[in-house]
Amino acid sequence: MASVFMRIFNLICMMLLIGHWSGCLQFLVPMLQGFPSNSWVAINELQEAYWLEQYSWALFKAMSHMLCIGYGRFPPQSLTDMWLTMLSMISGATCYALFLGHATNLIQSLDSSRRQYRERVKQVEEYMAYRKLPRDMRQRITEYFEHRYQGKFFDEECILGELSEKLREDVINYNCRSLVASVPFFANADSNFVSDVVTKLRYEVFQPGDIIIKEGTIGSKMYFIQEGIVDIVMANGEVATSLSDGSYFGEICLLTNARRVASVRAETYCNLFSLSVDHFNAVLDQYPLMRKTMETVAAERLNKIGKNPNIMAQKDEPDGNHDSNTISAVVNALAAEAENHNNSYSDDDSESPQKMNSDMNLAELNQSLRMSLPRPKSGEFLKLFEGNSP
User: Which stretches are transmembrane (predicted)?
Assistant: First the structure.
């Protein structure tokens, strides 16, 4: 702000300096001519006046020309005086245009973010008019912009993307300091874990009545409440509980890979930070203790809303059992085939064409089964193979 005012002050001083030069020129030319009788100095009887009075009248005449508000006390009486008047008017008009242009540019640069916000809102209004959106929907969109941007628009992703990784992390941690302070889960967590989570959060705003999470859908993110109140709504429409500043929700389906067990509705304007499932898993893989903590809290919440909390311990069991049964059946089939093969050809020492074809068929069967079935975990496969080996 100080630098902007200094630029405006310098511009005003430059205009005063040009006016001073013009006033001195207005008096210098008649003085060099010997103060002719038709000069403005002689008409005003300033030949023997005090220098301050002479300078004041000269500056007044020059500024009258430059501001295009008159010719002083008397219009030009001679050809020389007329040319001086035109020169002063041209210089004054030039300075006036430069001053307006610079002043307008400086005033706009004082609050460029607000100007960008107004431009964005104007563009949104034109879009709503072009699409003929209903009046209530237009009102909701306008209120959303007012609450989301608070009259200022920043391209925060672009700004943070140009910073170094350490500086970007420091800025994000500072911006989310109120969230970290209000979330008990963060207050008792490792600082490195908090920093890793915070740098991956995304700011979102929801209006009253918005469904943030819908029951039965596949979850792709969890939320931290910075400000606002949300209701946990069951399938029958009953509100199980309410969450406010510092709480988080949506982590259950990310931990269990299951569908949403309840709906979440915004009761007031809610300022939330979301964490995507990919970032969620990436962070918790590095901090298994925090995963256990979140699983414990999720089990308590499931019990509170009347769901089975054992779902936390049964994560991925159906698919794992199915894969184990399939692998066991494959190993048993291969073992039986190998045993029949050895019994059939144990007495024949020579390499007959039938034996070679059988070996080829067995190898092809083994390869096709490996390609068609999902690959199990190495430890699980070894256990199954040891239990079914001949």
Answer: 12-35
